[in-house]
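The following record pairs a protein chain with its ligand, protoporphyrin IX containing FE.
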Amino acid sequence: TYHWPSPLIDQVEGLLFEGRGEGSPDNDLLDLVGKLAQCQSGSLGESGAAEWIRFAYHDAATHNVDDGTGGLDNSLLLELDRDENVGAGMKHAKADFGHFPNKYLSFSDVTAVGVALASAQCEGPIVPIRAGRLDAAVAGPFGVPRPEQTLAEHTESFRLQGFNPEEMIALTACGHSVGGVRSNDFPAMVPGIPGVAADNFILFDTTTALDNTVVREYLDGTTKNPLVVDKNATLISDFRIFSSDGNVTMNKLADPETFDQTCSRLLAQMIDTVPSNVQLTAVIDPIPHKVDGVQLSIGASGLLLRASLRFLDQNDNRNVTIHWEDKAGGCASNECSASWINFREVTTTLSARLGLFVTKYDFQVGVNATTSLSKFWFTVDEGDGSAPITLDNDGTGYVVEQDTVLYVPNSSTSLTTVVAVRNAVPPTRVFMDIYARGPVLTTTVDFTPATDIASRIGYDFYTFDYTGIDFTFDLHALVDGTTYTEDMRDTYFATNNPDF
Ligand code: HEM
């Protein structure tokens, strides 16, 4: 069962049902679903959603069921220069996903989330998502199917990926229900437009939706899918695959419900194709009352606690209150509760498709620096006559582990990270572990005392100057032999908290 914090679940759940990374109020760079905007976005009919699905397939396609190696493991990023992975869309997908991985979240989990968001955005089926994929450090073997291969080669290739011949037909139809073929990538199939540098682009079918139009147009003979009708018979791999069982599977997929159910199952299987040493989580469902964006920081005259509480529905009569307890376990100041300051709606197409309306209440409260706080919780009154409920993380409260070292986003900029450290006992070292958009520790750097920020309310300030704002980090202060840590902060927080 879910208990806060669960960093991996929290992040994947947030990307799926809010489209955003953890604790990111209004930052487009942290809005994954915002990168899709709509299913079909390019002037020639290109689709970011299609690019994301093809990217996921090409990563998963080098799985080998016989020895349990390969699968959705991000090895594709190390294989993009191969002919079998040609395509402008690959580079787009890489750039779209690149801002989201961090210490807890692998690139391959972001890729899997991308498939669910893409399908939802294109009116396709709901694709259940698990997390826990690991990113490969080295490139894998070749083996992504190419159009010029024979049916026997494709059948063997899909067998190695874990799909039988019927599933090969269906998964290819699911994938080729969105997007199309580009002239720059496959000039033999799609001629460029004379005098025009931009790609010519031929869609697999006449709708943008991830629906069975590609199947119906194939069956009724109106299809323009280049992989079916190209005059070079060597290249018509979709024709060879679709017709390989006498159209039995394609006829089944002509039923929209069968198509949806089949694509939901096979796209999930595709992204859950992982090396045998990887253990995936259970399917991630929306969390009913979710806490995130928790940041204890330092204001002009006291500590500041920021946190958000998220609901899966809207209720204008709802009253939400945050409560907290000081370090001694009481409320020395007699002011240990507050109302929310900001309300937001963060529904994605995917959560809307599940019948959810995702709303967030943001809190920002001043806390006495001397008595500080140990934990917080919420009470919710739905305003409908029912008894108010307490949300206290199954009784433990939402615990704030330490206030010795704190990130100070309001003083940080895109070039400088500022942290505050309690000065009752001076620290022997203030440092941070930097993770450059991935689970691997990039470097550890030391802070130096800030020359331009005066000490206040029992804290000294430290800074570190860097170039490039795109990373996450863990803060540490070594005080009297004990290391205090603030886990995973994001440099984007720096621009997210104008009030801090
Ligand atoms: C024998 C199997 C397959 C072959 C030979 C094949 C080949 C191709 C080719 C040549 C393109 C054009 C790419 C470009 O112009 O950049 C393409 C696009 C695409 N493929 Fe496949 N494919 C196969 C199976 C699959 C499968 C199983 C999926 C996923 C379920 C998939 C998903 C896609 C998508 C979504 C696109 C459109 C990309 C875009 O519009 O940017 N393909 N495929």
